[in-house]
Design goal:
- This protein is of the alpha/beta class.
- The chain has two domains: 16-181, Luciferase-like domain (TIM Barrel, Alpha-Beta Barrel); 191-298, no CATH class.
- It has helices at 44-56, 79-84, 97-102, 120-133, 148-153, 162-181, 220-237, and strands spanning 16-20, 61-65, 108-114, 138-143, 193-199, 207-213, 243-249, 259-262.
- Strand 6 (207-213), helix 7 (220-237) and strand 7 (243-249) form a beta-alpha-beta unit.
- Helix 4 crosses helix 6.
- The model is unreliable at 256-298 (pLDDT under 50).
Length: 298
């Protein structure tokens, strides 16, 4: 490619469908259209048919919204929502997920669950089970609820104040992470390390995915050693220009695990739990899990 030629960047668009276990989701009144099928939300076949349709259409995921109360502010009561079927009645959003997973292979499922009205252990067990049944294709839309009517439905006189809900949410997340990822000692698991796979993409560059699982009790020196090992493997095994994604259980603070590197140079570094970036081209959060790097800057 000559210097005068524009650089072509191949990007993939991920399509996500948005639905809810009710007849009137984001388009109130559309259920009256003769071709609308949302009235079938109570039929499990509606959800399995939808999942198969989305997978045939190349969709990445289905996101399912949820609320635990009625919209009762407009005109001073729930009558308008009840009359027009505005997100009422609404079913439980997780129950159809295993059935949809059973008839698909690649479609992911994001489900809304309000932690304000959940107990960490019961929730962690339910979603761990969904994770097994879907072969890892389940995601959680973390919310704290915003409807006063939801609080009354769940036995409270009033909605928990906003800041208090988020304080509870932070503690809830720490507990479920511990239940999911830290319920046994490190020496009980003997497969720590990393593995990788190559995924063919349209165009000239393929995607290399590196899955990392580090010791939670490891020191900064241990993490640096792991980073050097992974760096060496990437430089020797992956072709120049490849897209590289590193993700997994870095056993550090925060809620996100990811590293994205566009290609690599001899200076490519991957950091685990670093206090500051070793390269101006890498950005590290104040509670880092990993660095996010681009080609030529790491």
């Amino acid at each position: 490619m000559s210097p005068a030629e524009p650089r072509r960047i191949h990007r993939r668009i991920h399509l996500n469908a948005f639905d809810m276990t009710c007849a009137g989701h984001q388009a109130p009144g559309l259920w009256r259209h003769p071709e609308d099928q949302s009235h079938r939300y109570r039929d499990l076949r509606y959800w399995t048919d939808l999942a198969q349709l989305l997978e045939r259409g190349g969709f990445t995921s289905l996101f399912i919204a949820d609320v635990l109360g009625l919209y009762d502010v407009y005109r001073g009561g729930p009558e308008p929502a009840l009359r027009d079927g505005i997100q009422v009645p609404v079913g439980e959003p997780t129950l159809a997920v295993p059935a949809m997973a059973a008839v698909t292979e690649h479609l992911g499922f994001g489900v809304t669950v309000s932690l304000t009205y959940e107990k960490p252990y019961a929730f962690a067990r339910r979603f761990a089970t969904l994770d097994h049944y879907t072969n890892g294709r389940i995601a959680w839309n973390v919310v704290t609820s915003y409807l006063e009517s939801a609080a009354r439905n769940l036995g409270l006189e009033h909605q928990v104040p906003h800041d208090e809900r988020y304080e509870v949410a932070e503690e809830f997340m720490e507990v479920v992470y511990q239940l999911w990822e830290g319920s046994w000692d490190d020496d009980a698991v003997n497969d720590r390390g990393f593995a990788w796979a190559e995924i063919a993409l349209p165009g000239t560059n393929n995607l290399f995915v590196v899955s990392v699982h580090l010791y939670s009790g490891g020191t900064a020196t241990d993490r640096d050693s792991e980073a050097v090992t992974i760096k060496s493997h990437i430089q020797t095994e992956f072709p120049p220009g490849a897209w590289v994604v590193v993700a997994g259980d870095f056993n550090h603070d925060g809620h996100v695990d990811f590293v994205v590197a566009n290609g690599y140079t001899s200076d490519l570094w991957i950091y685990f739990g670093c206090d500051s970036s070793k390269s101006a081209g890498c950005t590290v959060s104040s509670r880092p899990k990993a660095a996010v790097c681009t080609a030529g800057h790491c």
